[in-house]
């Protein structure tokens, strides 16, 4: 197995992180702007925004997880992982257009929830994003530590520290602007590397003969492209998880608020294609490892990708692979740091401590940078646990499933109240956790109840996918049909699949509670208020407006 010497590893890391830091320095300002630090002026062009969206959605973790899926479920694994992840980028762009329409100058989605509802809804969304971004940051540091430990004399802990400090170095200076500009360079390198490296590994490992001689190493489910095990354990949970990622993830929302509004559609379409091609391609390395009956190093499936690369690539291409993975994990890790700093700057300090009109931009910048340092330290500590990356990604996505319907409904339905949002999310989380971790015996009535909620969850997910493109009427028809058709096949067995059930239950409970409470409300919210209540912190131009609340507006002032 090929390894680098310490001088070569140090040289590669200095070139990569030194180069990104130099780019960061080139865009810094003496009089730094807090809004620029968070959203880069809401006017990023197509090339940078499309590259940044692609790079952020493609993490080292997603490459590793796709390969794990291929190694576990066979050839359908990377398809389930990459295809559904790609399509979810496409599915969220109509919601993105609506969000920018009502909040063109916002910094975080939670900030918009504060303007729409109030502090409790904002803090629920912000809190979930803090948890999700910390887990994402940790998994990227974990991927970097594993890579460096496998390909060099450095150990895992040293690798985690090197990657964490490298990302912090350039992110700290210019925040989000550094993230999006370095993303452009990183995604170009990643796309080029995948196009070269994956075919080379395949042919070096004996493709296509390896797929003939190794077929006997697969189980019946692994050899079946339409395996129900692969779909129920990987495909279906990931469909639900990535829809939640798309709606609840601040790293995606931050790019939505940063890109020029007229470029939202082409940006998301381009990211869809780039993500799908790259992640499915790298995931096929896991399929190849399965056919070759390779024993994963230390029994850790996170090692599949670097192990395949180090086994079948010559030194020159292994260097390219190393840079590709470092670029992939760094592009998402810097996005997580930017997201966390924006949440603390805008949602915690800007809205809830100082208040919109009294927030000091210089103080915000200091808070943002301190947040990055603290988040890096926490993520380093969590990375030492060496948890399974695929499980982490699906868990976080399922966790965010509790937020999807209340968040989307809040942008379209005038009757959604702060209490409906808050209660529905808490109820969904309270149901999701025991189902996901098997705390409830699923024998008898409990299993049937969970399966009925699963049926509702299937309808909600299907309906939401259609709603953004085709509107409410078609979404309701599709959602009802999906629930009715799936019912006979789901009830009685789906509760045995805890990952999928937990996610679907979160969707179902949050939708049922939010809809029931909102139908009874008398609110007629004016969506024009969101634009007034959000905006730049540096200009001081925002006029004082009423705080968000549940009181209905006069009939003539209702929004659409």
From TrEMBL:
It catalyses: L-proline(in) + Na(+)(in) = L-proline(out) + Na(+)(out). GO terms for molecular function: symporter activity. Keywords: Cell membrane, Ion transport, Membrane, Sodium, Sodium transport, Symport, Transmembrane, Transmembrane helix, Transport. The keyword Nuclease does not apply. It comes from the Bacteria. The chain crosses the membrane at residues 6-28, 40-59, 79-96, 123-150, 156-176, 188-211, 231-248, 268-292, 312-333, 366-386, 392-413, 420-439, 445-467, 474-494, 500-519. Residues 540-560 are annotated as: Disordered. GO terms for cellular component: plasma membrane. InterPro entries: Na/Glc_symporter_sf, Na/solute_symporter, Sodium:Solute_Symporter. It is a multi-pass membrane protein. Signal peptide: none annotated. It is found in: Cell membrane. PROSITE patterns: NA_SOLUT_SYMP_3. GO terms for biological process: sodium ion transport. Its main location: membrane. Belongs to the sodium:solute symporter (SSF) (TC 2.A.21) family. This is Na+/proline symporter.
């Amino acid at each position: 197995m090929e390894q680098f010497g310490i001088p070569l590893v140090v040289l590669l890391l200095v070139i990569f992180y030194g180069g990104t830091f130099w780019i960061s320095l080139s865009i810094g300002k003496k009089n730094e702007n807090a809004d620029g630090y968070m959203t880069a002026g809401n006017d990023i062009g197509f090339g940078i925004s499309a590259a940044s969206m692609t790079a952020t959605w493609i993490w080292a973790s997603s490459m590793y997880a796709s390969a794990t899926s291929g190694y576990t479920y066979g050839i359908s694994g990377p398809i389930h992982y990459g295809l559904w992840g790609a399509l979810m980028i496409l599915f969220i762009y109509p919601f993105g257009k609506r969000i920018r329409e009502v909040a063109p100058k916002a910094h975080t989605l939670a900030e918009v929830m504060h303007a729409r509802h109030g502090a409790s809804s904002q803090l629920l969304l912000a809190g979930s994003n803090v948890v999700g971004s910390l887990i994402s940051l940790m998994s990227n540091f974990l991927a970097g530590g594993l890579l460096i430990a496998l390909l060099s004399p450095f150990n895992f802990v040293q690798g985690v520290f090197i990657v964490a400090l490298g990302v912090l170095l350039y992110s700290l200076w210019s925040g989000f602007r550094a993230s999006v500009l370095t993303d452009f360079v990183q995604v170009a390198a990643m796309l080029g590397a995948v196009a070269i490296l994956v075919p080379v590994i395949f042919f070096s490992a004996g493709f296509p003969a390896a797929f003939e001689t190794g077929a006997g190493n697969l189980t019946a489910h692994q050899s079946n492209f339409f395996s129900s095990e692969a779909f129920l354990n990987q495909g279906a949970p990931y469909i639900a998880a990535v829809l939640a990622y798309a709606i609840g993830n601040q790293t995606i929302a931050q790019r939505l608020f940063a890109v020029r509004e007229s470029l939202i559609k082409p940006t998301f379409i381009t990211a869809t294609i780039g993500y799908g091609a790259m992640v499915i391609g790298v995931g096929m390395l896991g399929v190849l490892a399965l056919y070759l009956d390779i024993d994963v190093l230390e029994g850790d499936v996170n090692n599949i990708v670097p192990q395949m690369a180090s086994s079948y690539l010559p030194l020159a291409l292994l260097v390219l692979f190393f840079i590709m993975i470092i670029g992939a994990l760094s592009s998402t890790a810097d996005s997580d740091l930017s997201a966390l700093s924006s949440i603390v700057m805008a949602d915690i300090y800007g809205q809830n401590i100082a208040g919109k009109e009294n927030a000091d931009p210089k103080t915000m910048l200091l808070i943002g940078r301190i947040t990055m340092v603290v988040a890096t330290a926490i993520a380093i500590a969590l990375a030492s646990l060496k948890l399974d990356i695929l499980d982490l990604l699906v868990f976080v996505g399922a966790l965010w499933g509790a937020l999807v319907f209340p968040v989307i409904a809040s942008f379209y339905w005038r009757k959604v109240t702060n209490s409906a949002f808050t209660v529905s999310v808490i109820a969904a989380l309270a149901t999701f956790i025991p189902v996901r971790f098997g705390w409830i015996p699923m024998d008898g009535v409990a299993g049937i109840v969970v399966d009925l909620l699963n049926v509702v969850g299937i309808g909600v997910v299907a309906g939401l996918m259609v709603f953004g493109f085709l509107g409410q009427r078609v979404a309701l028809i599709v959602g009802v049909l999906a629930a009715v058709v799936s019912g006979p096949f789901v009830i009685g067995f789906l509760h045995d699949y805890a990952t999928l059930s937990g996610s679907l239950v979160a969707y179902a409970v949050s939708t049922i509670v939010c809809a029931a409470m909102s139908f009874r409300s008398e609110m007629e919210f004016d969506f024009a208020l969101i634009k007034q209540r959000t905006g730049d912190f540096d200009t001081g131009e925002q006029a004082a407006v009423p705080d968000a609340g549940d009181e209905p507006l006069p009939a003539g002032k209702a929004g659409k």
